[in-house]
């Protein structure tokens, strides 16, 4: 069975919010990611998903990530994935989705200043 | 014998087939004929008696069910040979004969006769061909047949998918195609398709996200849109865009399917294909050499991510094998679950190919190996679609017959009839 998905939200400066995702992102847990992170993203201009503790991601997990991307693009929040584990990265690459996400190796690689696509539009 | 059986078949329910066969086969010296049909997972052969809701009751002392692994009937089914049961010294013997519709393996016949010559074997082959045609013709109107060939209930998605997909084996002089899918009784989002039109052979594999009935619906819609577009003459890229459009209309970006769609020009061996977020096909060339074909993936159909669709081309050589697959074949989840892996997958195909085993049997064994590897419980659908390009000529060849597992007698019978 799937391990529980754990989401830890950390507020940062300048409208930044970091969500640490831990556990399996699959059919059983992807709705929770979609629902909860979408809500968090609405109150922030920059959303970072720390994926380092994701142990498995399947097609449903990818679907939730894509839905989140679509949502943040519509609301003007900049979404970044960091520390994506190899299995999840392989899924992103195979599906071509690596081309549509902003992906960084670690939190420190994220540009500090919010010179992203939009501010408070 | 055959003319009478064929004439009678127009108004014959499946339930009357066993008695009609016995009646007509007596004319060529077959005193008894039993029809055994393979279950969906190809584990067992079940006796068609014509009695009861599954047409399999009241077996009158005969075996109701035979294992495909370990029985003579199963061996005949696996290898496509006609074989007699021992002992030889009795007046009559039982012969086991493969039951093939085209090259799709339906089961096996047990024919009881005192005859043992080439003519008798040809009659066996012809009788098997006619019975297979009749069984196939009843398939879409007979619940009894569906019940007989299921050893446990299907889920709804599997019910949809198996009724949509083409047979698990097809061959002519140009191509040998075979497919396998597990878990056969509980599919969710996988589907395969193939079809011929003129010189072109179409191949496609879909893997819809999720493991629920909606995944089955997604795959179903994708296949429907694919066929509909293909039959209107659209190109591969355009077909995938139309699939995407249909999925977005229905599911508003919440459901998607990955897939490979390919067209093989059997005159030239040129393979044209599109990758929509899927594992690229494996090309297996002689001498155990294999590689992934490369083509920049476009986004999965239904996600609407707007990546460009790239049409890729690869020149095949005669004898090249193209293998499309979904990730359930090679992958596993979690550190404690060792994945089957791509190398083990291709090694398995190579080894059995070298042994000369018919391709459908190789795939059956592959799927059982994958199931065993995961202790019978797959966490994802696992699908393989295999296509070997043999050459440009569509006429039947001994090579195609051997790959498909047709008994040699069937090929001789065919040649005999086709000669003017």
Descriptive overview:
Chain A: Belongs to the anti-sigma-factor antagonist family. Chain A: This is Anti-sigma factor antagonist. Chain A: Residues 14-96 form the STAS domain. Chain A: It comes from Streptomyces pyxinicus. Chain A: InterPro entries: Anti-sigma_ant, STAS_dom, STAS_dom_sf. Chain A has 121 residues and is α/β, with parallel strands linked by helices. Chain A has a single domain, classed as Transcription Regulator spoIIAA (2-Layer Sandwich). Chain A has 3 helices and 5 strands, in the order ββαβαβαβ. A 5-stranded mixed beta sheet of chain A has the order 1-2-3-4-5. In chain A, strand 4 (78-82), helix 3 and strand 5 form a beta-alpha-beta unit. The longest helix of chain A has 17 residues, at 59-75. The N and C termini of chain A lie far apart (43 Å). Chain B has 12 helices and 17 strands. Helices cover 34% and strands 26% of the residues of chain B. Chain B is α+β, with helices and mostly antiparallel strands and 420 residues long. Chain B has helices spanning 2-9, 17-25, 72-79, 118-138, 143-148, 156-164, 213-230, 236-251, 342-354, 359-373, 398-404, 408-418, and strands at 30-38, 44-48, 65-67, 83-84, 93-101, 104-113, 169-171, 175-182, 190-197, 200-208, 257-265, 270-276, 282-285, 289-292, 311-315, 321-325, 382-389. The longest helix of chain B is centred in the first third of the chain and has 21 residues, at 118-138. In chain B, the strands form 3 sheets. A 6-stranded antiparallel beta sheet of chain B has the order 3-2-1-6-5-4, sandwiched between helices. Chain B has 2 domains: 2-148, Beta-Lactamase, CATH 3.30.450; 156-404, PPM-type phosphatase domain (Phosphatase 2c, domain 1). The model of chain B is unreliable at 414-420 (pLDDT under 50). At the A-B interface, helix 2 of A face loops of B.
